[in-house]
Amino acid sequence: MSLSKKLDENIEYLQQTLPLGSSFDLMTRDLLLGETRAYFLGVNGFCKTEILQQIFSDLQNPLYMKDETVQNIGCYVSAKLGYAQVSLVDSWDTLVRSVLSGPVALLIDGFDRAVLIDARTYPTRGVAEPDLERVTRGSRDGFVETLLFNANLIRRRIRSPKLCFAMHSVGTESKTDVALAYLENTVNNELLRKLSDTIDNLQVSSLTMGTKSLEELLLPKRWWNPLPTFQITERPDVACSYLMEGHILVLVDNSPVVLILPCTIFQFTQNPEDYYSSPSVGTYFRLVRFLCIPVSLLLMPLFLLLTAYFPDISARWGLLTSSDLNGPRLFFYVLAVEFILDLFKYSSALNSGKFSGSLSMIGGLIIGDIAVSLNWVSVEALFYGAVTLLASLAISGTEFSGALRIYRIFLIAATGIWGLPGFLTGLGLVLISIATTPTFGGFSYFWPLFPFNGKALGRLLFRSPTPKAQPTKVWSRGKVKNP
Length: 483
Prior knowledge:
By secondary structure, the chain is an alpha+beta fold. It is built from 16 helices and ten strands. A five-stranded antiparallel beta sheet has the order 1-2-4-5-3, with helices on both faces. A five-stranded antiparallel beta sheet has the order 6-7-9-10-8, sandwiched between helices. Strand 9 and strand 10 form a beta hairpin.
């Protein structure tokens, strides 16, 4: 729907569309540009007041405003408005969406186009290092909840003319800004088109939980696929490194998390700390993280299997100090340890840093000792549970680590109920679940292991020196597949 040339009709439409007078944050004002009537509309708190005051003061200054009436709005904007970010719109949808996003509108009598002045500012927190991706060396900045700031952090690191931020809008009510960042000379254009079309065709009222909501809308998963299908990061240096390798970044306004795609299972073994250490040290800790994946998944189920169903092997290897523990009791001990350790992990993570250290010490020293004394757990089960927890914490991706926890609890339940057949069947189902994990674009979740690419796999397993780490080309992953 287009604007009217009559200012009174435009004001009446705004009063019917927006809660003017009812909502305290919507600002309006009648102005006179010489003898021409005008109407100002903006959102309080989204505008740089000093800039707007200067603009309107100049427009109403008799020495500055020599013409008594506005004859041509295009020439008027070019000659009278010296502010950089000014545009003209003739659609009500565009005008209302823009005003609610931050720019202010100036409607002038006699013209069916409005002037948009982008003098917006958003309340935001400081650019600080993300808690979950800390490094001993390197940059200390991180993404924030303002999309423009996040784009600036990327542009600051990659000053390439090929860097592009394509803007989209998601949500019939929220109109959330979503930007796709990519390098024109390295991006997979077929994947980019598919991603753009999918975002434009999303039927949703709002992105309630920001990036997470968009992630689930882009690629709905079945309940038996808990592994993450998008890599996320809050570090600009990590995002830029993937951008240089031909990946696409998805930035969502009001969210400090950036989606990276396409995604493979090996990306969750990477950590920025590897690249702030020497190649040998980085390779060592990367291999340690690889080892932590089977330890986190299999240590507790194997402990339960051997101690409960193969006591001879358990006694030979000294897995238990007491021989009077039966299978059901060991099963209860393992479940109790899993519950207690998860309880401490989440309680310390969700509480203030002033209390998390105290909770960890209380959990490790007092409650653990009391639980053993009351026969709620055994010392051995508590030890293997602690090793499992340490292995889980060593894995970089928290969502990946959480999926392994679900698999582990499933294996413990299957092993405790059915013994060796339950363990083997459960392990087979876990492998099937991992193998059928979907990815956006239909790429293999196990690339470069399948389809095999030796050089790319070597770069993932071993931390290469910087001169060799620069890819001479973007690795091909095959064609984009439709679901």
